[in-house]
Fold this protein.
Amino acid sequence: DTGVSQDPRHKITKRGQNVTFRCDPISEHNRLYWYRQTLGQGPEFLTYFQNEAQLEKSRLLSDRFSAERPKGSFSTLEIQRTEQGDSAMYLCASSPTLAGGHNEQFFGPGTRLTVL
Amino acid sequence: AQSVTQPDIHITVSEGASLELRCNYSYGATPYLFWYVQSPGQGLQLLLKYFSGDTLVQGIKGFEAEFKRSQSSFNLRKPSVHWSDAAEYFCAVGLSGTYKYIFGTGTRLKVLA
């Protein structure tokens, strides 16, 4: 299967700890996105990469959050000093760069974070 | 500010009945429009999309959606629902000048046997 993969699928941590999530996009996709989804809500955009360049960040991405895509392939999302409000599903998506503006984003299964 | 509204949080239909899920958006121009489905433990799967052209679009699993510019709506329909359609459905818009999506809050569909 060559879909978007995310690791880990579940993470339980204590408040104040740091966590890091990984996303492997579909190999030929050069755009990569991170979203956060809380219970009863739709996904909310966090950040977007075109290859290794981080081109857009949401105001939701506080200074405790950092995302990287060092070689334009996989990406990591790190949350420092986790808070209970960070508990959510973190979704990664990727899309190709094709003519015509928006292209379908392919989503991974998500990483569910629980902060105790 | 741009927004997407899905007025129905929960919908329950009987298997074999028709279905319509509502989606309204707030945006000055015509956005790119999408419907995704999310089953428990699964990632979001694209059902259909509208970029331009014919305002009635066909998607996978027998779903279709109609774009109505005058109503700023993009409602999802299916003529006959199957028990396997039980899931959460999200409408999303893509805006010019950015590649992010804005999602609605979702509609959870329950199918009665």
Summary: Residues 66 and 73 of chain A are 16 Å apart (CA to CA). The interface with chain B takes residues 3-4, 31, 33, 35, 40-45, 48, 56, 58, 91, 93, 95, 100-102, 104-110 of chain A (CB under 8 Å).
